Amino acid sequence: MRTRFDEQMEELHVELIKMGSLCEEAIALSANVLVECSKEYDGEQEKIQEEAIEALRKKISNLEEEIDSKEYEIETLCMRLLLQQQPVARDLRNISSALKMISDMERIGDQAADIADLASKGLGHYSESMIHIDDMAKATVKMVTGSVDAFVKNDLVLAKKVMKDDDEVDDLFEKVKTELIDLIYEKKLDAKESLNLLMAAKYFERIGDHAVNVAEWVEYSITGERKK
Predict the structure, then answer these.
(1) Terminal CA-to-CA distance of the chain, rounded, Å?
(2) Contact 140, 169 (CB under 8 A)
(3) pLDDT digit string (tens) for 6-58?
């Protein structure tokens, strides 16, 4: 019976890694959409750009659907473990934590898709704030990877590092906000374009928060303590 339980827990770890990889790809692609939408082309190049952007949006949409499906698969696996294996203590915390984690990971997929949709509403010219946003995307990908790895490896130190890394994402968001205020003041970017960029940065900041939530559930699965 225990061997079967261990096999199912290993399956759970594998599926969580797959879901995390899908989230990472969605975040990276949403950042690519933002960069492409901020560039200006003329004539035939503009048409090629539009086709490339549409292809990226479609891929993100497909990834969002895959993430939703993966959430359902993992949820089903967790319920099967709870009902058939009747885990106690640490095992029960692991399974309940996984159920909470996939909810945050599903929201990460949603917000990556929201960023791609937002890009179509106009972003203006490439600016320093776009560089900061790209850095935010890279930092959140790293956080998602770290939080899932922490669960699979049962690594409390790595989970705490993910929580600390959120400070970097928050600092980058403040830089974006300051940059956009300066651009509006200098009349280099209109208010609508600035708001769209700020919203995109906010979505990345929220993705970082979801990664922190995942890391906190990892901490709970290991220690039995849950931060309020």
Answers:
(1) 36
(2) yes
(3) 899 999 999 999 999 999 999 999 998 888 877 766 677 777 778 888 899 99
**Helix axes of 128-153 and 2-38: crossing angle, nearest 10 degrees:** 180
Distance CA 8, CA 84 (A): 11
Per-residue pLDDT tens digits for 108-162:
999 999 998 887 665 555 566 678 888 999 999 999 999 999 999 999 999 999 9
Task: Decide if 126 contacts 38 (C-beta within 8 A).
Answer: yes
In sequence order, what are the residues at sequence separation of 6 or more whose Cβ sits closer than 8 angstroms to the Cβ of residue 114? 203
Q: What letter would DSSP give residue 225?
A: -
Tokens of 105: 């990971």
Report the C-alpha dihedral over residues 194, 198, 200, 206, rounded to 10 degrees. -170
**Would you tell me how many other CB atoms lie within 10 Å of the CB of residue 86?**
11
